[in-house]
Each structure stands twice: as C-alpha cells, then as structure tokens.
Request: fold
Amino acid sequence: GSEWTGEYIMEFRKLMSYSHQEVNSKVDGARYSFLNGGYVEDLE
Reply:
C-alpha cells in the first residue's frame, strides 16, 4: 500500500506546485476525487 502512495503524493505535489493557490482552496474535494482515480476539474 505504501508504494503507490508515494507515486500519488508526488503527482499531488506536482499539482500543488502547478496550481498551489487553487489546489489549496479545494484540497479536500480535490484529494478525494484524485484518490478515486479522477482529479476534480472544478478549479475553473
């Protein structure tokens, strides 16, 4: 379980670095959708 977690964390950190303010505003919703296999595109 910890192996895939590392990859997800790295990807999530990339997203945070790309849209830090936006992701930080919806980190809760984004996190759940991301873990479910789909990133929430409600940052528009």
Summary: The CA atoms of residues 21 and 27 lie 10 Å apart. The longest helix spans residues 2-18. Residues 2-35 form one domain.
